[in-house]
Design brief:
Shape: globular
InterPro entries: ATP_synth_F1_dsu/esu (IPR001469), ATP_synth_F1_dsu/esu_N (IPR020546), ATPsynth_dsu/esu_N (IPR036771)
CATH superfamily: F0F1 ATP synthase delta/epsilon subunit, N-terminal
Radius of gyration: 11 Å
Family: Belongs to the ATPase epsilon chain family.
Helix content: under 10%
Protein name: ATP synthase F1 subunit epsilon
Strand content: over 45%
CATH class: Mainly Beta
Number of helices: 0
CATH topology: ATP Synthase, domain 1
Largest sheet: 8 strands, mixed
Keywords: ATP synthesis, CF(1), Ion transport, Membrane, Transport
Subunit structure: F-type ATPases have 2 components, CF(1) - the catalytic core - and CF(0) - the membrane proton channel. CF(1) has five subunits: alpha(3), beta(3), gamma(1), delta(1), epsilon(1). CF(0) has three main subunits: a, b and c.
Number of strands: 8
Structural class: mainly beta
Number of domains: 1
């Protein structure tokens, strides 16, 4: 099942908020909310104020409020830099 997971890293100016495997990530994109699942096409997007929702490898939810940020998705790796 490891190939059906994302590797997610969320960092703010102060610290790392999340770093680990996940099933999905929901993001507040500037042109609308979207969800990243394993196999998602490569994308770079800006993020608007809202909540990042991560469903970790065990299915547990994690929420992070942000003011703005940017996300890069490539090869099941999700990197998010955000101000919270």
């Amino acid at each position: 099942m490891a190939d059906k997971q994302l590797s997610v890293r969320i960092v703010s100016l102060q610290k790392t908020l999340f770093d680990g495997p996940a099933q999905s990530v929901s993001l507040p994109g500037t042109v609308g909310a979207f969800e990243v699942l394993p196999g998602h096409a490569p994308i770079i997007s800006s993020l608007e104020p809202g909540t990042i929702e991560v469903r970790d490898a065990d299915g547990a939810p994690h929420s992070f409020g942000i003011r703005f940020g940017v996300v890069k998705v490539r090869n099941n790796e999700v990197t998010i830099c955000a101000a919270n």
